[in-house]
Amino acid sequence: MNPLVLVIEDNEQNLYLMRFLLEKHGFTVAEARDGTTGVEMAREIKPCLILLDIQLPRMDGYAVAHELRKNDELAGTAIVAVTSYAMVGDRERALEAGADGYIEKPIDPERFVDQIKKYIHPREGEKPSLPNGS
Ligand code: MN
After folding, report:
1. Has this prediction a pTM greater than 0.85?
2. How far is the CA of 134 from the centre of ligand 1 (A)?
3. Which residue in 8, 72, 78, 97 has a CA-CA distance of 20 to 30 Å to 91?
4. What are the residue ranges spanned by the domains of the chain?
5. What is 4-116's CATH topology?
6. How far is the CA of 12 from the centre of ligand 1 (A)?
């Protein structure tokens, strides 16, 4: 089974680009367009990685990270904040809220998959190799 990534992002263009790049490299992608739905979906599908926008409707990315980190079942799920390049303070806040790391917007299509792969750790019983894609 392909590794499952949940993208929580309300910007259609960013969502489209991340989905395109992830699927091209063999990941399965689930989407949520607001923070509340993102938390619910994460609990349900337990993805290996969550890409988390900060400015989201209903519940912002900090609150989402904080909420998800209370859930032991998601201990193996990496949370990577997707923050605007200009918003330096966002990164520290995201890490404090429970994110494992961050990547910067605008997304660099050449580097995106390499940037996120380092946060994914194989779970017990799963193959340690990640898809290489094309
Ligand atoms: Mn946003």
Report:
1. yes
2. 29
3. 72
4. 4-116
5. Rossmann fold (3.40.50)
6. 9
